[in-house]
Amino acid sequence: MNNLKILRIVAIILFVIYIAIPPYNKIAQIGYCYNNFSMLYSQLIDSQVQEEYMFHRNNAVYLARMNSKRSALREIDRAIALAPSIIQEQKMQELYADRAEIRLYFKEYKGALDDYLKLNNLNMTENLKVAMILKQLDKKKMALSYCNNILSIDINAYAGYSCIADLYASVGKYNVSVAVFDLLIDRVPNRAKYYTERAMYKKLCRDLEGYEADLKIAHDLSPVQSDVVPIAEAVLEPKNVDLKIE
User: Fold this and answer.
1) What b-and-e string marks burial along 92-123, b requiring 16 or more CB atoms within 10 Å of the CB?
2) Which of 13, 17, 92, 128 lies at a 20 to 30 A Cα distance from 139?
3) Closest CA to 165 of 218, 202, 118, 133
4) Cα gap 143→133, rounded to integer Å
5) How many CA atoms lie within 13 A of 69 on its CB side?
6) Dmax of the chain from CA atoms?
């Protein structure tokens, strides 16, 4: 066996080991290394390719994707601390929103809530997240106002109705949850998911006939159905950090 073959075998073994050991998100790890190399190179050639606060912000995103909680939170804190005082207000708001997303991913609910409440104008998704965090913190009356904020933005927004229904279900008022979906379906009658979710609440009300009827309507509208994922679970347990690298 010549030296070239030995090197190839060693390279393959090292690659397999690299893939098998943490962190498992290798794309994020490569991005993190590239981000740090780019910053080091720009400093060596005295270039201002990337502002320091944004360097730390991007590092935080990569580290969060690698599930490195402590390092990710430290980096996003640095980004906010180093953000220049003359930075545009909109950019500062984006940094708080980024930290909220990272904190939420790591189930730092109180910290995430604090950052969301720093935002001037919450969009529908952010209102939903605040509502579900408040529910998690047992502040359901406050949570309801954020569900209503969603409907004030769009009266037909599924997220608003599902948010309200989830809150009432959390205190055992499943009949109210059904009534909430009645309102939504009256407005938007052709979405299979709405019937599937209403069926879930009807089953909790022990209305098995209504449960079966809704599932049939849902199947007729869309034969391929996925399992119902409670809105609180989807919001409070995000599967990834959905932030862009800037």
Assistant:
1) eebbbbbbbbbbbbbebbebbbebbeeeeebe
2) 92
3) 202
4) 8
5) 6
6) 76
Query: What residue type is 46 in one-letter code?
Result: D
Q: Which residue has the higher pLDDT, 224 or 34?
A: 224
Count helices and strands in the chain by DSSP H and E runs: 13, 0
Q: What is the pLDDT confidence band of residue 39, given thresholds at 50, 70 and 90?
A: confident
Could you tell me the sign of the dihedral formed by the alpha carbons of 203, 208, 214, 219, in that order?
Answer: positive
**Residue-wise pLDDT tens digits, 96-126:** 999 999 999 999 999 999 999 999 999 999 9
One-letter identity of residue 120: N
How far is residue 61's CA from residue 27's CA, in Å, rounded to a whole number?
Answer: 12
pTM above 0.90, yes or no: no
Residue 84 phi/psi, 5-degree rounding, is: -65, 150
CB 122 within 8 A of CB 130: yes
Handedness of CA 186, 191, 197, 200 (dihedral sign): positive
Rounded Cα–Cα distance for residues 69 and 161 (Å): 33
Burial of 224 (0-12, 13-18, 19+ CB in 10 A): exposed
Closest Cα to residue 73, out of 52, 97, 102? Answer: 102
Q: How far is CA 79 from CA 57, 93, 119, 137, 205, in A?
A: 5, 12, 17, 28, 49
